Amino acid sequence: MKLKEDKNNKAYISISEKGGHVVFMNYNRDVNAETITQEKADEFGKKFLKDKGFDNMKETYYLKESGIVTINYAYEQDGVTIYSDLIKLKVALDNGEVLGIETKGYLNSHEERNIQQAKISKEQAKENLNPKLQIESEALAIIPTKWRTERLCWEFKGKVDDTDFLVYINQEASIKLTFNDLNRFLKNPFINGNTYGYPIYCEAFSFKNNKVFTREN
Description:
- The chain has helices at residues 38-51, 104-109, 122-126, 179-187; strands spanning 11-15, 22-27, 57-65, 68-77, 80-92, 98-102, 134-144, 150-160, 163-170, 175-176, 206-207.
- By secondary structure, the protein is an alpha+beta fold.
- The strands form two sheets. Strands 1, 2, 3, 4, 5, 6, 7, 8 and 9 form a nine-stranded mixed β-sheet that branches. It has a two-stranded parallel sheet with strand order 10-11.
């Protein structure tokens, strides 16, 4: 699609046959100067989504590159982040213009869930965490699995020795006790590998003690 205001670049858009929803849109243009912050871009993004009828969307991840920030938003219901209902936005850091959107995850998955009470408390889940993990945030989350089901998990974001970690503990958590177990998971935590930085699928692995960070012979 050619634009009247920009004859040098094109915008690409995909519309769903059912409902006429925008599934994908991308407009590439140069951003020569960053004049707004990522936080301001997030405000523009949330307002854009709300104006388009996407309410209760929470920023979960962002990536800055070449004057553009790509922000992942997940739906939030009753304080639970639902990663299945995902929307990705590209926002220009010169004027806050939305340059791209991908809504496939949200359109395919969104519905009001009947969220059950967690079987284990946050405190019980934290007992499985490495004591070296400096927790920055903790909350309930629903994540999709490779079997096209969903799991309610406790999500812990934090750092170990300046390395970022995301730990998901579900109601029947698989405990990983060795470095090799954890290392194999960290090398391939995704379904297809193409994500923007957080596991869209994981087995909710956790670790019992510091031995998990000791490489085995």
